[in-house]
Amino acid sequence: MTNMNQKEIYNFLTSGTMTAKISSASLRGKPHVAPVWFVVDGKSNQDVSNIIIVFTTWSKSLKARNLLLNPQVSLCIDDQTPPYSFVIVNGIAEIDQSPDE
Questions:
Q1: What CATH number does residue 19 fall under?
Q2: Domain interval for residue 35
Q3: Which of 16, 44, 47, 69 is the most buried (most CB within 10 A)?
């Protein structure tokens, strides 16, 4: 297995429609994984240490409730075709509850 460089990670994340698996946890640490469709924010650049990934979810979903209480998050985005590459993104979720966004 080889590691992707910054440009390869950025290109992978912006290569088209893919599903991420988002992992959140309750305050007690109970994990929850769910699929989400995402986009990379247009303000992001190829410096993946500052990339912004945007997704929506219903405000009463388990992942939304978890993220409101514990914003630490991990995403896994994987390619379903050989050679089966993937990217894992760890970060802090920022919740925007304004429907106009």
A1: 2.30.110.10
A2: 6-92
A3: 44
Question: Residues for the chain: how many in total?
Answer: 101
- Listed in sequence order, the DSSP H helices in 1-101 are 6-13, 62-69
* CA 88 distance to own-chain centroid: 8
> Within the chain, which residues score under 70 in pLDDT?
1, 44-47, 99-101
Give whole-number Cα distances, 91 to 2, 21, 47, 84, 87, in Å: 23, 14, 14, 23, 13
Indicate the pTM of the whole model: 0.82
- Whose tokens are 């009463």? That residue is 60
**Rounded Cα–Cα distance for residues 93 and 91 (Å):** 7
Contact 18, 53 (CB under 8 A): no
**Rounded to 5°, angle at Cα 99 from 91 and 14:** 45
